[in-house]
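Issue: ligand-bound run for zinc ion - logging full I/O for the record.

Environment: standard queue, default settings, no custom constraints.

Inputs:
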Amino acid sequence: MKIICPSCQYVGESKAIAKGSRKIEIALWCCLLLPGILYTMWRQSQEGRYEGCPECLESKVRVLKRKDWKLYERSGRLPSN
Ligand SMILES: [Zn+2]
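Outputs:
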């Protein structure tokens, strides 16, 4: 998926980023084993991920249409709308 990031102006391929935090995951594993397992499963499932900016991990990115991406590749300009 090709994206435009509104916060750092990154243009290119998006990245699947895991929601939640590694720290919470570790804390849950240490204190309470069962929630830790569930939390890890959630982070590794589809619902626990989002497509976002690989540079700044922004989730509210604009998805580029195939046509728009082609235009960007050819001209180096982004379609304005
Ligand atoms: Zn970004």
